[in-house]
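Weekly puzzle thread! Below is a chain. First person to post its structure in token form gets bragging rights.
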Amino acid sequence: MSDRSGIFAGDDPYAIAQRWLGEAEATEINDPNAIAIATVDADGLPNVRMVLLKDIEGRDMPSGGAFVFYTNYGSAKAREIEQAGKAAFVMHWKSLRRQIRVRGLVEREEGPQADEYYASRSLKSRLGAWASRQSEPLSSRTALMAEVAKVTASHGPNPKRPPFWGGFRIKPLEIEFWADGAFRLHDRFRWRRQTLADEWEISRLNP
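Winning reply:
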């Protein structure tokens, strides 16, 4: 499109997303990689929560391009993702006045890449992943800390990645890049495809 220039320029949406995230890392005070991820439960009731995006895989990667985050597979979000096979998220950077919206299909990442990321986390975070039964009722913080002490004693200073903890890879069918415009006349470009094998169709949207 002739007017898709400046911050919107490029023929690879993953490269644009990587560029925007890189710029946000220089301006956002906290967690520039935070995303609000949305799922639906078995009754179709939506859920949304903040998680940290850990990788934007380019189109030259084996995945063909994807957005990756990690969580407990027993959590509500993970159960809902696996039931539907789909998810959506938005990244919003207040300092840049930009956002990226993504909708797509989801697959697990529980191989060497997940092991490598888990090993890069602090020891306390690794032990916390073992101790937390994410999204399940908890009687008290004291009970949680007792569980942390228990797994510390049993798993030692170099715990392996729990089998119930790993990544999800969102492979997009739709990506929208949004930037604030004067008088609320925002710029929006949507990249859309019907299947993962299709070419992207790019449209400018009304604000």
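Puzzle host: Confirmed. Bonus trivia for everyone else. The first strand starts at residue 34 and ends at 40.
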